[in-house]
Amino acid sequence: MTMLHDRLADLADEAPASLPTPGLWDRGRRYRRRRRTGTLAVLGAAVLVLALLGGVTWHRGAPPVQPATGSVGLPDRVWTPSPWLPTTARPGRLVAVTGAKQGSWTGMSPGVVGISAITGEYAFLELPDLNPSHVEEVALSPDGGHVAYWLSGETEGTPNTLFSSESVAGVAVLDTATGTVQQHRIPTEHGIEPGLLTWVDADRVAFEAGQIVAGDDGSEMDQGSTREGPLMVWQPGQTPAPVAANGASGTDVIAAGHGRLVVADWSTDDPGRFRVIDLDDRSQDRRVGLPGPDFQYGNRLPVAIDASGQQLARVEDGRSPNRIRAGRFFHQPQVPRSGGTFAVLGWLDEDTLMVWRRADRGPLDRTVLGRVSVRTGAFEEKVRFPRLVGPGNVQFATDLLDAPSVHAEAPPRPLDPRVVTGLAVGTVLAAGVALLLWRRRVRP
Amino acid sequence: MSGPDRGQPGFEEFVAARRQALLRTAYLLTGSHEDAEDLVQVALVKAVPHWSRIADHPEPYVRKILARESVSRWRRRRWRELTTDELPDRATTPGLDHGDRLALRDALALLAPRQRAVIVLRYFDDLTERQAAEALGIGVGTVKSQTRDALARLRQLVPDVDETPDSTPTPLTR
């Protein structure tokens, strides 16, 4: 037996003799130059791609330059928000809110976008514990300073998932100036069925929270049943108080604003079945007549009451869109040339309404917001919308409807951060692979 | 006392002093005179860009290039060349035991390139397992398993050879 080491050493004696090889140093220097050039080229290309990506991302995410007037304005156009807009808890005074899909790393979820009354910027609102099934039912206060919404929460008993995937367990209000959120939790056995949620004025929100009769372990009939709750008025910071209006509930409210509620008594066909409730002076409560309306759209009430509490305006019943009726109680003549109106948002003065109607020009599914004279029917377009957007999709701060019209630039359309990250990682990986292949490929 | 020259003179001096030893290792790694020459030249040229950093102790770095290059160039050639179980006849140096050398040379040629490199580094250059792992850029565990498999194969092919017992490596002075 011979040792492997010795056998290898013996075999190594066959190695060729060392001969002088001039130029090795120079070859090495050239090799280094080639490697360095290739490396710099690959890194330069990668940096260029990353810079391009960063530039496009920044450009698409940067808010448009708007004239900084510092005062509120009504945008002349509402745009479809991007799912990748930033989120803020302090958007400042809002002129409008709209529901929108909000993107995240894991997918899309319903969110609420606020449009700043000062800057016109769009941003998702940070609404803690917002119930995802009732995103469309948020309520913007008339002055644009508060947003009310339904809260998710725990139930005391078995939750009911028939109505919504997450149980509703209260009401909350976001102060858009400070970002503070005040919550009013409502004890509930199986969850709350949200009824009315609307602002009575800039400081008080009215709501009605029905109690779901049974949870998922109850009988089918009970699972689908709710008990109406009392009509409540809440000034954030104080305790909500019931509005004692002869047992009125949320479904009875047909108008709210300027500190007043108009409630209907649906048990009678009497024209004087409506009651105006003045929340600041209940001695002013009075019965009024209002022919016709027998429906409502959740918190987006079909009837607008003016600041004096003496006039109402509404779209005629029967079909939508339709003409407007406006005037004092018991006498509401048709507004001339007002066909094609979907909703009345509010009174701007004694003679002028802000209404949502079909656009005079363009596709049939395009709607506009504009001023209409009750006396003459003259219409002035103020806000345009994307196609298929109508009342119920965008909610305005009604006190700001007569603010000066301002040109609204399109909000930013940030790139999907998942795509941006993927492209950046891909670029770095590609550069790494290219570098590796190049350094392997380049021969001395 | 001044240190080694970090420029061309120091490099030329190293090449003159150590080229033959590097050729011996390269020959064991490749089994071919031409490939051994080429391998050593490539290793030396690749060491030039790093010379100012390694001038104090260049040999481990050059041997690392030698070992890795021998494995990677085999991988590159694998796609271009046909493999065969029959080795070509080669010229032998007069005065040596041709039978023993031929048997070992043929046996080494039948090893996988990494196994061959591990055998050369461990049993000719007397590197420890950790040093061999660093030279090849692989884990110590891989060195152990490759050594075990290579020795088993060598014992089959060259029954009269016995491996050197594991011990601390001797300085590379061949």
What does the model show?
The complex is a heterodimer of chains A (444) and B (174). Chain A is an alpha+beta fold and 444 residues long. Helix content of chain A is 17%, strand content 32%. Chain A has helices spanning 4-12, 24-61, 220-223, 417-441; strands at 2-3, 74-75, 87-88, 94-104, 107-116, 122-125, 139-140, 146-152, 168-175, 181-185, 192-199, 205-212, 226-227, 231-234, 241-242, 253-257, 260-264, 274-278, 286-288, 303-305, 311-315, 324-328, 341-347, 352-358, 367-373, 379-384, 394-396, 405-406. In chain A, strands 3-6-5-4-27 form a five-stranded mixed sheet, with no helix packed on it. In chain A, strands 11, 12, 13, 14 and 15 form a five-stranded antiparallel sheet that branches. Chain A has a four-stranded antiparallel sheet with strand order 7-8-9-10, with no helix packed on it. In chain A, a hairpin with a 5-residue loop joins β20 and β21. In chain A, α2 (24-61) runs antiparallel to α4 (417-441). The longest helix of chain A is centred in the first third of the chain and has 38 residues, at 24-61. Chain A is elongated and about 120 Å long. The two termini of chain A are 42 Å apart. The model of chain A is unreliable at 294-300 (pLDDT under 50). With 174 residues, chain B is an all-alpha fold. Residues 79-83, 87-96 and 165-174 of chain B have low confidence and may be disordered. Chain B is built from eight helices and one strand. Chain B has two domains: 1-91, no CATH class; 93-168, Winged helix-like DNA-binding domain superfamily/Winged helix DNA-binding domain (Arc Repressor Mutant, subunit A, Orthogonal Bundle). Chains A and B meet through β1, α1 and α2 of A and α1, α2, α5, α6 and β1 of B. β1 (2-3) of chain A pairs parallel with β1 of chain B, so a sheet runs across the interface.
